[in-house]
Amino acid sequence: MKRFALGVAALAAAGLACVPSPARANAFLFTMNFTESGSCTFTGGSLFPQTCASTFESDPSTTQLTTGQVWVFTLPSPTFTGQVNILDPDGVTISDRLRWIDSSGSHSACDPGPNVTACADRLIFYSFDDVTPNITLGSTPNQPLEDASGNFQFISTGCGQTVCNTYNGVSAVPGPIAGAGLPGLIFAGGGLLGWWRRRKKIA
User: Fold this and answer.
1) pLDDT at position 7
2) pTM
């Protein structure tokens, strides 16, 4: 499910690709660590590591990318809206997309620019290990690579400093569950049959 080619870049020209970062006032820089399973922590300002709020829900964006469930993280500080693609190690295939949205679900309401106040309060993590996009995904100006283990890092720009918000994500493909699959089913069925025959013999 994870393998599909990049779509045309027309969506990027339509404003779908922006670089989220914090506003210069009433906000603080932070580092956010999150995973495909919904765990999330952050540090920033004078705050020690804290847990982020997260929910697993239908895509809350006004322009939905999928009909499947996605992880939505509450941002610790307002940022600009926008989105980026996370690419597989091949540098071509889109593995994930991060999208910063405001309270109405818009990912372009406060794109970075002069005299723009940051308004994004949530980050959507689309993992294409788990969901399929219902539109053709275009390229975005910022496309960090994930490594073979699914780890990636995106450092935003546009806050007037050398380093802005840092996002460390993990989008690892889940490993096989022990005992799952056809062998596990056969083993379980054999055990059930043996139990039933013993019970019948005792009766």
Assistant:
1) 38
2) 0.74
